[in-house]
Design brief:
This protein is mainly α. The chain has five helices and no strands.
């Protein structure tokens, strides 16, 4: 995701050396990890950026902007199957991509929290 991260920061006018990401690698020089409140990987952001721009009306959305990140999260979940009733798979794909079946504990936790919110009318 290094090259994608460099493209994203350049497009947004951000310094890649000071732009925060999660899990910055300690074992090698460079960048890594997810960006912004949606914790979106740079390559994934590039894939959904156009949809986010269309939905928000912003010519240059940012994964670091809360509203843009939430719209991107919805776009990603929709593309991963949530719109087709496959919420469990979509949530796990959001977390682990193609390795989602190895991390189903995540979906269990997220959907349990969602169920609790629903029961409280939230």
């Amino acid at each position: 995701h290094r090259e994608a991260f460099l493209r994203v920061t350049e497009k947004l006018g951000l310094d890649p050396a000071t732009t925060p990401v999660s899990a910055k690698p300690s074992s090698y020089a460079g960048w890594g990890g997810a960006m912004g409140p949606g914790q979106i990987m740079p390559g994934t952001w590039e894939r959904v950026e156009g949809a986010v721009a269309r939905l928000t009306g912003k010519p240059r959305p940012s994964p670091f902007d809360l509203r843009d990140a939430f719209v991107a999260t919805a776009v990603i979940l929709q593309g991963a199957g949530a719109a087709d009733g496959r919420e469990f798979e979509a949530v796990n794909r959001y977390f682990a991509g193609p390795n989602w079946q190895r991390f189903t504990w995540y979906g269990d936790r997220v959907l349990a929290v969602a169920k609790e919110y629903e029961s409280r009318g939230l």
